[in-house]
Amino acid sequence: MKKSGIINPALCRAIASLGHTDSIVICDAGLPIPEEVERIDLSLVRDVPSFNQVFHAIAEELQVEQAVMAEEATCENPRVVEVITEALGKDKVKFVPHSELKELTESAKAVVRTGEFRPYANVILYSGVDGLF
Is residue 56 among the annotated active site residues? Predict the structure, then answer.
């Protein structure tokens, strides 16, 4: 049994299988998830687990090259923007319209659904490399 880090088998496998520039989405309870994308549904009840909990756990294990968020989050949910920019750095976070974020979700390797009920608590994380080349 693993001693630390993420212990959910599906989430461990999804993170480990990401290659350079592959993406994984962390989303709130309401984001539509495309049928063709792997769904890792961690939601239990309202706000459990929270977006922040899941984001921090994944960010600890994934080399993030870039993150994409909905530009609407800057007004509707500035706290989630702050959490992500503090963890990754402002230079790694790109903002697009929410409709475009939903389209980009279609090419993700997996979507991780949280129990988060705050609006626009969604991020696409693109896998990077560190020190390999």
Answer: no
Helix axes 9-16, 51-61, angle to 10 degrees: 50
pLDDT in tens, 16-45: 999 999 999 999 999 999 999 999 999 999
Q: What are phi and psi of 2, to 5 degrees?
A: -65, 145
The fold of 20-127 is RbsD-like fold (3.40.1650)
Q: How far apart are CA 26 and CA 123, in angstroms?
A: 5
What is the per-residue DSSP string for 55-122? Answer: HHHHHHHS-EEEEEEETTHHHH-HHHHHHHHHHH-GGGEEEE-HHHHHHHHTT-SEEEE----STT--
Structural domain boundaries of the chain? 20-127
Q: H-helix or E-strand containing 10? A: helix 9-16
Query: Would you tell me how many other CB atoms lie within 10 Å of the CB of residue 114?
Result: 25
Cis before 32 (ω within 30): no
Q: Which of 13, 16, 20, 94 is catalytic?
A: 20
Tell whether pTM > 0.70.
yes
